[in-house]
Amino acid sequence: MEKKFSKVILPTALALTVSVSSAAYANPQSTPNGPYIEDNQNISLSSYMSNAELATKLQKLEASSNGKMKLEVAGYSNLAPDGYQTEADKGEPIYVAKFGDNDPNKKRILITAQIHGNEQIGAEAAIDIIQKLSSNGKEVEEILENVSIWIMPRINPEGADNQYEGKWYPTRYTHQTWLPENIGLPADTVAPWYYNSDGSERAQNNEGRVVYGIPGYDQNRDYNPNLDFRVENQDLSEVASFLNSQSTNNSKYGGFYVTAEARTVTSVFKEFQPDVYVDVHHRGFNTVSDEDNRSVPVQFAAVVADPYTDPFTGEQYEVDEDVLTLAKQVNALSALTLQKGQSHFGAVQKYPDVNLPGTALGAFALNDTSIMLIEIKGQSQTLGQKQAGMLKETVTQPLFAVFQGLADGSIYEVDTQVYDDIPEASNSISDPTSRN
Ligand SMILES: [Zn+2]
Fold first, then answer.
1. Cβ proximity of 86 and 133 under 8 Å
2. How far is the CA of 113 from the centre of ligand 1 (A)?
3. CATH of 51-429, one of 3.40.630.10, 3.30.70.60, 3.30.70.20, 3.40.50.1980
4. How many angstroms separate the alpha carbon of residue 1 from the centre of ligand 1?
5. DSSP-derived 3-state class of residue 207
6. How is this protein annotated for GO cellular component (predicted)?
7. Which tens digit of pLDDT belongs to each residue from 113-160?
8. C-alpha 154 to ligand 1 mean position (Å)
9. What is the pLDDT of residues 148-198, one digit of tens each?
10. Which of 60, 236, 255, 257 makes a 20 to 30 Å CA pair with 363?
11. Selection from 153, 152, 187, 194 nearest residue 172 by Cα
12. How far, in Å, CA of 102 to CA of 379, rounded?
């Protein structure tokens, strides 16, 4: 996710030298709360999972779960502009690991990760969660008796496994080309604003852009509070003029559901109707405050969208009060779980205030589901695997606490004031190499 205000440039740095190099880190970090990245460091990403490795891992976990986990292909990434024209347009499978079914008598939680392909640790944390839920033990048993948990560990497989110049080169965006005439729109119709036409990413330390050359979308702007929105079902001339105007083709409105990835996740959401939806992201770097220079490992948010009026139908969407209350309780419990004295873990903040109805979290919150945004520190290309173990824990520990809280009902006792009191985002470090 990105901030509504672009005053501070987030360091979604993409290393020009993403490689398996094992370059020595010349200066081991000298502060207890890093790491910050020194100049000329190469980041080791070699231990990240390819799509094939992820599939193998999930299949093994299903086999060893004693029937607790059912692995399904929910859909496929999409290489065509308008859904699957042919089998050849199908890209990579998008998996959902299901613990329990959509039983309305159970609490239901949906977790997605890697909606942005360059946000790897979310997927790894998801695998850790799946592994633990697949194992035996009283804790897991009690959770799964009362809670159904569906996990989609990698919902942007194209970006996650992108290659550039023969090397693994993960990208934020999906792979897909805007060809408006193929979906009944005039050929000169302007693309949705979240289309990345040249296939490019911000370069390391925000110095220019690297063009990898495959166009695609920011999937996390392609959702719509109207979960059934499809361009082809609308008045096409109305859609064309909406897209052709800058006053409407922007982040204040829902997306166009042009990606198969967003459609797939939404179909899972509709089938499951979760009480809670969690989406795991990566962000930049910052410290707690001028006085407290602990590096913030994670930010949370219970709200990412304002009340919304569908510009095509006039239908109104808003987050119900009880839905917001549970969202705050989920986020508050997560923040509390990470408080361990004055440790790095506890240095959590709230994600900056945003209004993004085209995000998965925004669209689903406006459809009666309590949400939690988890934003892990650092982009994969900046941190590599450094601190990966700790950062995964900032996802898995809160989520297990939420599972337990939902299972025994204790989550409904959490004071929402705890959420309101989580410190606001601050002290962004725009360039991790300069430590300022
Ligand atoms: Zn993200």
1. no
2. 9
3. 3.40.630.10
4. 4
5. coil
6. extracellular space
7. 999 998 988 999 999 999 999 998 999 999 999 999 999 999 999 999
8. 12
9. 999 999 999 999 999 888 888 889 999 999 999 988 999 999 999 999 999
10. 236
11. 194
12. 34
